[in-house]
Amino acid sequence: MVDYNLGCTVRLNDEKTLALLAGLYEDGAIRHIQVQAVPLARQFFLKRLDRIAATGIPVVVHAPHHGHGVNPCAPAAYDDRPPGEIEEYIEEAMRQTLEVADTLDAETIVLHAGRYEPGGRFAAVETFADFLDRNADPRLTLENLPAVYAGYPLLGNTAEDLAALAGKKITRFCLDFPHLACTANYRRLSFVDELERFEDLNVALHHLSNIRRGSITDEHLALDHPDGGLDLAAVFTRLRRHPKVPTTLEYKEDSADVYARQVKVFAGLWEDRAGE
C-alpha cells in the first residue's frame, strides 16, 4: 500500500473511466475516487449511482459547477435561461449532490463559489453567502478557483479569499494547485508564498494537474506535459508534509490511458521528494 492517498476523478455517468479506476483501486495504485456529480434524469442517476457504490471505493464528491449550469455566486451570469428555471435547476442539482454523498458515504463535497460578471464581485459575495445559508452541510469543502478563465472572473482565488467567503459556514477547504498557480501568474504573486498561506486553513483535499509555464488558464495538463509550468517541487514538498490529506488528479480527458499513466507519474514524483 502506498503511503499517500491518491485518487482520480470520474463523472457520475462515465462507466468506462469508472471501470479503469476500479482496476487501479484493486491494484492499490489509488485509494479514492472523486465523483463529479452532474445533473441526470432520475432513472439514469440511480443506475449510475448504484454502479459506483458497487465498486466499494471510498468517494469524494464534487458538486456541479458553472460548467454544469450551477453557479452559486451569480446564478444568472452568462446564462440566458429564465431565473426561475435556473433556481429550480440548481436546487435539484444540489439535492442530487447530497444524495450522491449520502449514498456513497462521502465525507467531502467539493464546491466552487462560481463566476461573476466584471464589476459584480460585491453582489457575488452576498449571493454566495445566501447560497450557503440555503445549502448548509458540514461536508461542503470550498475550492480555490483561478482568478480568471475565458475572460470572466471567478470568486475565491486565494487562501485569504476562501477564509472570508467561508466565514463560519464552511470549515473545510480544497487546495487546487494549478488554480492557485494561475492566480499567482495573473496577479504576479509568488506561488510559493500563496501556497504557504494555505497552512492556516483546514485543507481536506488537494487537486492536482498541470498548467503551461506562466499561464493564467487552467487546462488540466498532465503532470509530465512538456510545456508544464507548475512548481512541482513546491507542490510535492507540501504533499509530503501533509500525507494524510487526499490528493485527487483531475483531467478533462477522462481516459484510461491518461489516468493509468498519470498515477505512475505521480508515484515517481513522490519518490523523487522522499529524501527531503
From TrEMBL:
Domain Xylose isomerase-like TIM barrel: 50-262
Domain of life (superkingdom): Archaea
Pfam families tied to this protein: AP_endonuc_2
Organism listed in the record: Methanoculleus methanifontis
Lineage: Archaea, Methanobacteriati, Methanobacteriota, Stenosarchaea group, Methanomicrobia
InterPro entries found in the cross-reference section: AP_endonuc_2, Xyl_isomerase-like_sf, Xyl_isomerase-like_TIM-brl
Gene3D superfamilies to which the protein is assigned, alphabetical: Divalent-metal-dependent TIM barrel enzymes (3.20.20.150)
Name of the protein in question: TIM barrel protein
